[in-house]
Amino acid sequence: MKRLVKIFCLWVVLLGWGIQGWAAKDSIKIGAFFALSGPAAFIGTPTKLVAEMAVAEINKKGGIHGRPLELVIGDTEGDPSKAVAIVKRFIYKDKVVAIIGPTRTGTGMAVKPIVEAARVPTIMTVGGDPVIMDGKFGSYRYVFKTPQRSSTAVRKIYQYLQKKGLTRIALLTATDGFGKDGRKWLKKLAPEYGLTIVAEESFNPRDTDMTAQLAKIWRKRPQAIVCWTIGPAGAIVAKNVKQLGITVPLFQCHGLPDPKYIELAGPAAEGNLMPSTKLMAWEQLPDSDPQKPVIAHFVRLYKEIYHYDRRFPINTHSGYAWDAIMILARALEKVGPDREKLREAIENTKGYVGISGIYNITPEDHNGLDESSMIIVKIRNGRWMLEDY
Fold first, then answer.
1. What are phi and psi of 4, to 5 degrees?
2. Quick one: average pLDDT of 178-183?
3. Which of the listed residues 3, 89, 110, 346 has the most CB atoms within 10 Å of its CB?
4. Range of the domain at 68
5. Looking at residue 134, what is its pLDDT?
6. What are phi and psi of 64, to 5 degrees?
7. CA-based nearest residue to 258, from 156, 352, 351, 382
8. pLDDT category, 266, cuts 50, 70, 90?
9. What is the CATH classification number for the domain harbouring 220?
């Protein structure tokens, strides 16, 4: 009888150890939703792959205090209503600790009030400023973003124009949320840099020809044209500029440094300028730049270990999900998966050297990047070249 009791007690102890071990390794769920299909899939799909790459690298090193990260994936298709449905599933069914994504400003704005109400820390990978700005839903607390603000990219362009002594500019912007955000900042900041906007035109991002708008612009004799859009529309604008014989510099926004842009625009891409993350010309950075070794490591993983470059060559968007995951992981290491503590830890991120910049997030700035995180690139002979100015 005593032997049976000992065996039973040993079994209970071993079972307890097993339960504790399982609990210690229970995964930390993170929602990750991107445009994996639809017009923005060329951005959303590689962003998802990078998120998976970042999580794999963290888990190889033991996860977060022994607990692996687990991504719960959703495809928004670039549709705000689908993004809303996915976020609700993440929060109320999957019980995620935090969320990464989405891809477009419009889908980000659609889910912003939901994650705020549910108090779920969300690090977005969208370019537009509105997701981290106050609006009709009141102040934000739980939404952050890793891509530079539109306003930061506008300032980078305007600094270049100012240095070059160019003062008369024309604007050509898309009518979607991202384009409207760009136009707002382009107009608001122009006086600060001594710039005069001589013409303003717009287009639907699905349009296939912008020659009518560009012809109107050209009649106003600007010294430079600034276009604000993402996707194939930017390449169409470049081709139309070439067709019309317009000779002034064409600036694109920070969402377009991508090998796909050069492929679609062809020879018309030659000489185009745009603000970019340092990722697009990282080998041309001085060795003293603290981001250079970080980017070199990322590029090696992307190309040599995970072989993503075979399907999706690196573009300016490639680092956004990596930075989002790493910022989140740093916060989880400090405070664990408690949502409120996690939000506060993300908000106090300081000195994180990422792919897209060195992040110093504050309660007033849920992005944490300034103009020093960006470079101006110029397309020369089909390559992205760091523009010195």
1. -65, -40
2. 94
3. 346
4. 28-148+294-372
5. 73
6. -105, 100
7. 382
8. very high
9. 3.40.50.2300
Asked if residue 337 belongs to a domain, the reply is yes
38, 97: one domain: yes
Question: CA separation (Å) from 33 to 73, 143, 341?
Answer: 6, 15, 23
Per-residue pLDDT reduced to its tens digit, 72-114: 999 999 999 999 999 999 999 999 999 999 999 899 999 999 9
- State the chain's mean pLDDT as an integer: 92
E strands, the chain, are 28-34, 69-75, 98-100, 122-124, 143-145, 168-174, 196-203, 224-228, 250-251, 273-277, 350-353, 358-360, 374-380, 383-386
How many CB atoms within 10 Å of residue 371?
18
Are the CB atoms for 290 and 358 separated by under 8 Å?
yes
Residue 308 belongs to some domain of the structure: yes
| CA dihedral sign, ordered 288, 290, 292, 297 | positive
**Has residue 210 got a pLDDT over 60?**
yes
Q: Which residues contact 356 (CB under 8 A, 6 or more apart)?
A: 146, 147, 148, 277, 278, 279, 319, 320, 323, 369, 373
Residue with tokens 């769920």: 29
AA letter at 96: V
What's residue 19's pLDDT?
35
CA dist 226 and 228 (Å) reads: 7
User: Which helix (H) or strand (E) segment is 153 a member of?
Assistant: helix 150-164
